[in-house]
Amino acid sequence: MRAHLTRAALFLIALAVPASLFAADDDLPSFRKRPDKDKEKAWVEEVGTAVVKAARLGPKAIELDKYELKDAGKGRKDLAITMTWRGAVLIKRPFVSTIVVQVDVSGGEKWKVLGIDYQDDNRISRTEPDATKIRNLIEKFNR
Questions:
Q1: Which long-range contacts (CB under 8 A, 24 or more apart) does 22-26 make?
Q2: What is the pTM of this model?
């Protein structure tokens, strides 16, 4: 009986893990369903947090410093975001990330992310920001 419960518990855990991974994508902000102007700052903070988490392994205490929406030509805008965060290992050392999200705004309220540029001042880590994970965010932001 005890072994039978253990197998059942493992089965349930195996089912729960993939579901939790898919649920994490649902928490990402969508550029197709942008919020009203009064909730814009919180939405931009979610966008910046998602990019920093994709770029770096285990960032902590991620905060929005500032953001600006700039014209970048006909039907295009750049969302410039500055985020501050601390590393998982070097908690006392703050880092600054500069993010530029290139957006096609020709679809009215349904924007489409075209690209994401990411830079930060973390020179302590021997790894570069994860460009593949950042590129993968584009599709998720456009859902």
A1: 25/140, 25/143
A2: 0.79
